[in-house]
Fold each of these.
Amino acid sequence: MKKIKIADGIHMLSMNVEDMLFEGIWEIANGVTLNSYIVQGEKTAIIDGVIGWDGIPETLYKNLEEINVHPKDIDYLIVNHMEPDHSGWISNFEKIKDDFTIVCTEKAAKLVTSFYGKDKIQVVKEGDTLDLGNGKVLSFHPVPNVHWPDTMYSYEHSTKTLFSCDMYGAFGKMGDHHFDDEMTPEEEEFFEKEGIRYYSNVMTTFTPMLRKAIEKSKEFEINTIAPGHGPLYRGNPEKIMNDYTRFSNYAEGAGKNEITILWGSMYGMTGKAIAFAEEILKREGVKYNKLEMPLESESEMVATVFKSAGIIIAAPTYEYKLFPPVAAALDEIGRKKITGKAAFRFGSYGWSGGAEKELAEILERNRMKWDMVPSVEFEGSPKAGDFEKIEAGILELIGKMKDKIVE
Ligand SMILES: Cc1cc2nc3c(=O)[nH]c(=O)nc-3n(C[C@H](O)[C@H](O)[C@H](O)COP(=O)(O)O)c2cc1C
Ligand SMILES: [Fe+2]
Ligand SMILES: [Fe+2]
């Protein structure tokens, strides 16, 4: 566990976590950090915690002692968000101290009681403050549905620090650099990518509420944004606000100037058309990504489709429906409410077809409002006429993408 001073009397405790399925689903190839914050006035508060703190009270004790915090002096646990990646440590903390007050929203209070059986809770509303002494004053600001209904920001007034919890978070392990102004260009690029993965995997379904939370964060004078996952922003806190605004637009059809080919093929017939499509994309100078389902991780699949302005769905008919791994991927995208993408499908069939009907059902069921170029289906192996139609479809897709591009 790392201990980083972020201002006088404020420390971050951060832990890199790997080899886990985040939320039990997302295979996060580059790990994630869990950040917790200690604010010391005359009294001491911990804002969010680190999952389990490895379950051993002695480790928690030792880590706190190393930054001169005596666990017995911790009076307040601020729960910005009750999801157990931030609150799971409460049951370990109570092994070293059982007398503390939990500070959270009314909605979180109900969850704290039902998950942990705790009832010494101070419920806070918009603008309520907690004076810790020695000039440290926290205020609390609910941001519901980011991404649970209970979430709030905490803000420390003397240091102008916004503790934003999941908001402005990113996946990706942190090395020796923790602040935006320490990052190398490579690290900046890494965390932009991991921010997109985080937003698309965890947050995107709640995009309208995230937009409200972005607006709310703009009301504060901010020296540092201190999220629950990923880097801290003090050099240019506005950048992460702008990035999150851009991501919110990706959720509704905008994207980078790239096409993602979401594909699957049993015996290579659709594969022949994909090879042809790649030649066209290269000729047209369009950057593209390929996601072969079901080999690609769910996390990477969602993130890559999410950030692309154009999508090619390439998949055959299977048992009168769309090739199942591709159908499942599209359904997942739909459940995440990733709407408005420009897209084009082609694929092979043997005798009846049926893929097309299921694709329409998936788009309709999830109200995806994708801007579809008419599909091209071919019997068995694609022929010269099919290639012509596929080329025309790709060119139409590139045309549709043009006004959706936001880098
Ligand atoms: C398990 C299985 C189920 C299939 N079901 C259908 C079907 O319901 N209707 C149809 O027209 N073709 C069906 N096909 C035929 C495929 O769509 C056809 O072989 C196509 O060329 C496969 O494309 P691919 O080589 O890209 O996988 C099925 C093939 C397999 C192996
Ligand atoms: Fe969360
Ligand atoms: Fe979280």
Amino acid sequence: MSSRAPGPTDGAVELRGIVKRFPGIIANDNVDLTVAGGEVHALLGENGAGKTTLMSILSGAYRPDAGTVSVGGRAMSFRSPKQAIEAGIGMVHQHFRLVQPLSVAENVLLGASSSFRLADKATEDRVAELAEAYGIRVNPSAKIWQLSVGEQQRVEILKALFREASVLILDEPTAVLTPQEATHLFTIMRKIASEGRAVIFISHKLDEVMAVADRVTVLRAGRRVATLATGDSNKADLARLMVGREVMFRVARGDHEAGAPRLTVKGLGATGDLGLPALRDVTLEVRAGEILGVAGVAGNGQRELTEVIAGLRPATSGEVAIGGRDISAATPAERIGAGLGYVPEDRLGTGLIPSLGCIDNVMLKRTDEFARGFFINKQAAETATSELVDRFDVKTSSLHDPVSLMSGGNIQKLLLARELSAEPGTLVVAQPTAGLDVGATEA
Ligand SMILES: Nc1ncnc2c1ncn2[C@@H]1O[C@H](COP(=O)(O)OP(=O)(O)OP(=O)(O)O)[C@@H](O)[C@H]1O
Ligand SMILES: [Mg+2]
């Protein structure tokens, strides 16, 4: 870990002519990017445009096929994320890299020291001190699995601050946050930049980019199409640069009568991971043709509510009915059978199996349809998956490669495609547009 404090010239990032190819695709095609210390620089682009790949090169996870990387004016050739961390690069990934059974302080320590130590009192104090200085609310001795997604993200930021990163990369940090949490994050980001560090911010939310970033670079299909000061730009221009066409920011909501009750929740109670009550006497009804939004600051029971409905968390009181049928005692599979679709908050945890390809992930939910005795009709499964991928515009170079290799937005599209195509009578979705670009959200 470096001991020097970031100075005014530290943190300047210079990427020149970056090229990165994967089988069948050029993810980065001769990309230039300059980020100054003290600046919040947004990186925009459609799902699959190459944003995460470019940042994975800057953070040492991938080596470029061509091009140069320099940090703080020094040429770098990272062979591992560890080397990038040592050079002052901190990256908060789209999918967090935290060790669930360990505490916040232990996770902050991981990777910062050469050998793993258990966090002692001094580390916990240092973490608490950093958290305090940046207004980050998190308990250093809590275990990761007990934290909400927003809290886990703050741990990732603390990790970078603990290692004194001079460049902080945030890959779609607000995709999983409420507007209040996002505003809080922006304050943290501006503070980090005000110390002369560089902050690189990937987001699909143009309002956020306009609000927090000084400059923005737009990528389209692996190429850089523009770098602009946000003060000289507007949302419509940015969307056009990203997508290459005009984008509608309004969704037409057709008028229709609500039908019979589809989902009925009565007096529902449940306990959270910390053993405290997470849901207390929740009652709601959703009728056919209705969309019911559940809003609130993360950590106030939304996740627990969706999990109880899906049958993944026991209810301590109350009942859940689908189409008038009480399913309170049903297994998750029986609930699916009763017409319930579920898109969880952690798409690569409970949603999809990261190491399996698109076909297998689609089949997970549709085994019956393609079963032939004990076997699966692979040809039919492949055809169905291929149709689904086309229909929902999921961009992937292979139906067989692990879905963890797909871009974040395309993973979300695959999950939504699978759940929507099953035509469930009732669909429970946590954060449906998380990670989707403006074009896909509009669709
Ligand atoms: N390890 C990999 N192996 C194969 N293909 C990859 C790998 N990583 C990325 N890709 C492909 O490179 C392209 C760019 O992906 P990338 O993750 O950089 O997109 P992105 O701009 O971050 O998109 P999103 O907004 O959906 O997160 C995609 O087509 C993706 O499938
Ligand atoms: Mg990405």
